[in-house]
């Protein structure tokens, strides 16, 4: 087993060193560029990786390696797939649906079973940035989610993307995807759960990460003068940002922030000053729900 680990580290070191030479860059340049791109890795660590004395471990290092592939003009996964899968992933919290409403929980279970969705414990989300646009009628018109996903199983080629709501019915959206293709989708008859199965462009090994961008556009149908947008997570997520932007001609008369920090907590509602843009940011959040509701008095 020890020989196999050394072999794997050497393969990564040789590929990494060869790519640096072929690109004609220095470790100092790579360190500086990674730092500018919010993936700081020291020159000493990069040197250890190139010599094979150490290999990348942990989610932060693997994210940096993914960025290194782009900077050195390599095919996605060409370095990640050479890393020993003895990666320290850290503890994986059990998944927990934060929706306590029976109708939502049952609809979610039925939908995932019908879709033959991949097990929920094969990946975890490390970060998510969700931007929602509200049009001049006050209705949600697009929702763009950029998600950093990490594999926690030996080989992952499919993931599930879901939308859920306890109060507002969901209309089946149209999707624009980056990093994956749509395989199967289903809107539950209750209108409280929509889910789809996505095939990753590049399969992931244990500890590997990828970025997904999912833009959902709901159909233009009449909506009540009350709406919502938000995010739910089933296990803790490192960074979560939810940004809702209103059309300047349709700033709501009232806005409430909604938050539930676990399935055992009540849904908390807090009034927010009406404005064109509302952002919410949380660190190490979840399981839980975070978002806003808005409406018009007229």
Can you characterise this structure?
Strand 10 (254-260) and strand 11 form a beta hairpin. This protein has 298 residues and is an alpha+beta fold. Residues 1-9 have low confidence and may be disordered. Helices cover 23% and strands 39% of the residues. It has helices spanning 2-23, 27-36, 43-51, 58-71, 102-115; strands at residues 123-134, 140-151, 155-164, 174-178, 180-187, 193-205, 209-217, 226-233, 237-246, 254-260, 268-272, 277-285, 288-295. The chain starts with a helix and ends with a strand. A six-stranded mixed sheet has the order 4-7-2-1-9-12. A four-stranded antiparallel sheet has the order 8-13-10-11, with no helix packed on it. The radius of gyration is 21 Å and the shape is globular. The longest helix has 22 residues, at 2-23.
Q: Can you write the helix and strand succession as a string?
A: HHHHHEEEEEEEEEEEEE
Class from secondary-structure proportions: alpha+beta
**Radius of gyration from the alpha-carbon trace, in angstroms:** 21 Å
Number of strands: 13
What coarse outline follows from CA principal-axis ratios? globular
Helix content: 10-25%
Query: What spatial order of strands do you see in the largest sheet?
Result: 4-7-2-1-9-12
Uncertain segments: 1-9
SSE topology:
Layout: H1 2-23, H2 27-36, H3 43-51, H4 58-71, H5 102-115, E1 123-134, E2 140-151, E3 155-164, E4 174-178, E5 180-187, E6 193-205, E7 209-217, E8 226-233, E9 237-246, E10 254-260, E11 268-272, E12 277-285, E13 288-295
Parallel strand pairs: 1-9
Antiparallel strand pairs: 1-2, 2-7, 3-6, 4-7, 5-6, 8-13, 9-12, 10-11, 10-13
């Amino acid at each position: 087993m020890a020989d196999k680990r050394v072999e794997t580290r050497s393969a990564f070191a040789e590929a990494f060193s060869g790519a640096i030479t072929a690109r004609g860059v220095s470790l100092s340049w790579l360190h500086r560029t990674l730092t500018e791109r919010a993936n700081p890795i020291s020159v000493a660590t990069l040197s250890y990786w190139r010599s094979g004395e150490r290999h990348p471990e942990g989610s932060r290092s693997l994210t940096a390696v993914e960025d290194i592939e782009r900077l050195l003009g390599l095919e996605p996964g060409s370095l990640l797939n050479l890393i020993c899968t003895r990666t320290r992933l850290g503890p994986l919290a059990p998944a927990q649906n934060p929706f306590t409403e029976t109708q939502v929980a049952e609809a979610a279970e039925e939908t995932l079973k019908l879709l033959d969705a991949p097990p929920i414990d094969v990946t975890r989300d490390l970060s998510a940035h969700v931007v929602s646009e509200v049009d001049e009628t006050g209705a949600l018109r697009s929702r763009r989610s950029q998600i950093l996903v990490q594999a926690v199983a030996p080989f992952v080629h499919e993931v599930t993307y879901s939308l859920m709501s306890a109060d507002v019915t969901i209309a089946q959206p149209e999707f624009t995807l980056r990093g994956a293709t749509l395989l199967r989708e289903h809107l539950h008859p209750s209108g409280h759960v929509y889910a789809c199965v996505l095939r990753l462009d590049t399969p992931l090994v244990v500890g590997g990460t990828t970025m997904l961008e999912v833009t959902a556009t709901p159909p233009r149908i009449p909506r009540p003068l009350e709406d919502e947008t938000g995010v739910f997570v089933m296990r803790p997520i490192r960074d979560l940002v939810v940004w809702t932007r209103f059309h300047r001609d349709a700033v709501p008369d009232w806005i409430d922030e909604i938050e539930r920090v676990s399935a055992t907590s009540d849904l908390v509602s807090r009034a927010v000053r009406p404005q064109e843009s509302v952002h919410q940011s949380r660190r190490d959040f979840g399981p839980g729900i975070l978002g806003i509701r808005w409406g018009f008095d007229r």
